[in-house]
Design a protein that fits this description.
By secondary structure, the chain is mostly beta strands. The chain has 3 domains: 12-283 and 442-496, Tachylectin-2, Chain A, CATH 2.115.10.20; 292-430, Jelly Rolls (Sandwich); 517-670, Jelly Rolls (Sandwich). The structure holds beta-D-fructofuranose.
């Protein structure tokens, strides 16, 4: 596949802004700096957030992006610009739209106006039209604007009649526009962030907009709704099409901070109707068991619960971001200073005056050693362990036959090896067993660094793919990630598909095949009945650790195994597959630089399944400072920043329990897309 060399080879690039020269200096050292991504898009200098204006035209994928032309923190939002023939190699172009007259250029989209409905076209060439949010710096207002280009996106003119859509609101943003053929109209999908709503508008010409309908609140509603998208997708292996509504959410995700959810349904040109099988929004109160709250561990200490041993020496732990799923901020964990600490935490006596005890539990799966026990007359009459998992799950005990008895609860940690820890939260004695409502949303990504994702418009029909990428950061720490002179990268581009996964329709993501243009040497490894450890990294992984890894594992039913990634003398990122609990976790707590934000280190958990052949597959892209991970052929995705030292390049496979009856790994070293 042909690809253009990025234009940044120029010694310097000067862009003029109203007489002021903003210099984005590109030198021979640019793209060789510490932590600089080698095949993810980054601006040469300065701050970047959301992808914007994604449109394909004349063989070029355009990528505009939220950009601060003047510094490496969020501010002066403008649209930076780059183009690519293949979504892997990028050429920087001058800033397309600058903040001007107190109006920042917030997120939005772009389309090819094939029929010249806007009248901006010239000489029979269709114009590119950008639709974006004007954010007013001097008053609480956001409204929608357009700009156009008649030279393949090289220069842009703001429309004199802006704004084209104004409803006088402070929060009204991120318009994504598409052509809807059946109604022969433009459709705008735009959010009312604080109302947790998406609004749909239609227009014949991109200038006059009519309100059609609203969708929401639904799904995950704790965070604000931003950057929506709406598109049809064919269900794999069928001719059936469904509509997917994307809603990025500020401050809510399965892993913490900003996230991205999606809805599957129908769109008739006027209204989005959610399919029945989707998890719907539930009021917070319905997500908790009803009854007498015996403990929630929200206090400063354990109150009248009695701790013994090193395990519980620290009191209830707050904001424990190694793990997920607790209620509120605090929980009881036997982590102490690590797996090795042991101890117990015992409740005061209480009378069993209802039939069901419900609680959240996580941690080690060591019966009798890492567990919650119900003690009556000195004997453990009920006991439950964790599942060797970082996410808490709901458990219920039927205690009807114990009614009237006096009891205590005891959290026990008598294990010092791996998963030598247990954690418990929110214990309720009530009249009915509690049915866990599950997650409120369908999540696009299970880690923390995939946000504001939107898809490319106008990908040629003969290609037929729905393609997108996301901003690879999180508002919790985006301004603090220690990289210079740029800040933030985009994820690699992915193809979206709809698939039936275990009976449910789900959107899945696959790395675009154009990433193969970066492949260098190929290595293949196979093992049967693998136990113990293997070092995988081939000797010649170069000065930087760039690779693509594809693996298939056929584990025994009790297998627990890990891939150690970006491993150095004192750092490692751990990808752990726990077959009994059907969960995998990505642990970046020791991945390198993590201390710049308390919200950065963490362990993220996602479910997986074994395919019909009893196998798990994974596909992973390792850049200098990030991982794009696809499991189960793209059904579960994790996108995660890591900041290891440049020489932390180890790659190892460790089987801790059971065995891998078959393990097959293919690894390609990748080249930089920038040099
Ligand atoms: C999402 C977002 C958008 C907004 C843009 C501003 O990350 O908050 O809602 O348009 O960033 O930079």
């Amino acid at each position: 596949m042909s690809h253009r060399l990025p234009r940044i080879a120029l010694p310097s690039l000067l862009v003029a802004l109203g007489g002021i020269a903003a210099a984005a200096t590109v030198t021979a050292a640019t793209y060789r700096e510490l932590h600089r991504p080698q095949f993810h898009f980054t601006p040469a200098t300065n701050w970047m957030n959301d992808p914007n204006g994604m449109v394909h035209y004349g063989g070029e994928y355009h990528l505009f992006y939220q950009y601060n032309p003047f510094g490496d923190k969020w501010g002066h939002m403008s649209w930076g610009h780059a183009v690519s023939p293949d979504m892997a190699h990028w050429e920087h172009l001058p800033v397309a739209l600058y903040e001007e007259d107190g109006v920042m250029i917030f997120s939005g989209s772009a389309v090819v106006d094939w029929k010249n409905t806007s009248g901006f076209g010239r000489d029979g060439e269709p114009p590119l039209v950008a639709i974006y949010t004007g954010h007013y710096t001097e008053k609480p207002l956001q409204n929608q604007h357009i700009a156009y280009s008649t030279d393949r996106g090289r220069t842009w003119t703001k429309y004199a009649g802006n704004p084209v859509l104004d409803i006088g609101k402070r929060d009204f943003r991120d318009p994504k526009v598409m052509w809807h053929e059946p109604t022969a109209k433009w459709i705008m999908t735009v959010t009312l962030p604080t109302e947790r709503k998406v609004s749909f508008y239609s227009s014949p010409n991109l200038k006059d907009w009519t309100h059609l309908s609203d969708f929401g609140p639904a799904g995950a509603v704790k965070g604000i709704w931003e950057c929506p998208d709406l598109f049809p997708l064919q269900i794999e292996g069928t001719r059936e099409t469904k509509w997917v509504l994307i809603v990025n959410i500020g401050g809510e995700s399965i892993a913490g901070g900003s996230g991205c959810q999606y809805f599957i349904g129908e769109f008739d040109g006027r209204e989005f109707k959610l399919d029945a099988q989707q998890p719907a929004a539930q009021p917070a109160a319905d997500r908790l068991p009803k009854g007498r709250l015996l403990a929630d561990f929200e206090g400063r200490d354990f109150g009248n619960w009695k701790p013994e041993g090193a395990s519980f020496a620290n009191g209830p732990v707050k904001n424990f971001d190694r793990f997920s799923g607790m209620i509120g901020n605090g929980l009881a964990t036997s982590w102490g200073s690590g797996d090795k600490d042991q101890g117990t935490l015992t409740s005061p006596e209480f009378t069993i005056d209802a039939g069901h005890l419900s609680f959240l539990i996580g941690g080690g799966n060591h019966p009798g050693e890492t567990c919650l026990n119900l003690i009556v007359d000195g004997e453990a009459v009920r006991t439950t362990t964790g599942q060797n998992s970082g996410s808490l799950r709901w458990e219920n005990w039927d205690v009807t036959v114990l009614r009237g008895k006096t009891a205590t609860l005891q959290i026990v940690d008598r294990h010092s090896g791996g998963w030598g820890q247990v954690f418990v939260d929110h214990i309720v004695l009530g009249d009915a067993p509690f049915e866990s409502p599950g997650e409120p949303a369908l999540w696009v990504d299970y880690a923390k660094d995939f946000y504001a994702a939107v898809s490319w418009s106008d990908v040629p029909a003969k290609d037929g793919r729905r393609l997108w990428l996301g901003w690879m950061s999180n508002w919790q720490y985006a301004n603090d990630v220690p990289t210079s002179p740029w800040r933030s990268a985009m994820s690699i581009a992915r193809e979206l598909r709809l698939r039936r996964v275990n009976g449910h329709l789900r959107m899945v993501q696959l790395p675009v095949e154009e990433m193969q243009t970066l492949r260098l040497s190929h290595h293949k490894m196979e093992w049967d009945d693998l136990v113990g450890s293997r070092t995988i990294s081939p000797s010649g992984l170069g000065g930087r650790q760039l690779y693509e890894l594809k693996a298939g594992f056929e584990p025994s039913t009790n297998a627990v195994f890990e891939l150690h990634l970006a491993k150095g003398a004192d750092e490692v990122t751990v990808l752990r597959f726990d077959v009994p609990s059907r969960q995998f976790t990505l642990d970046r707590t020791r991945s390198g630089k993590t201390e710049f934000s308390a919200n950065f280190p963490g362990t993220y958990t996602a479910p997986f399944f074994l395919n019909d052949d009893g196998e798990i597959d994974l596909h992973l892209f390792m850049d200098t400072s990030s991982i794009d991970l696809f499991v189960n052929n793209g059904a579960q995705v994790m996108t995660s920043l890591i900041l290891p030292k440049p020489d932390s390049r180890g790659l190892e496979l460790h089987v801790f329990r059971g065995e891998l009856e078959e393990a097959e790994l293919e690894l390609w070293e990748l080249k930089s897309a920038w040099r």
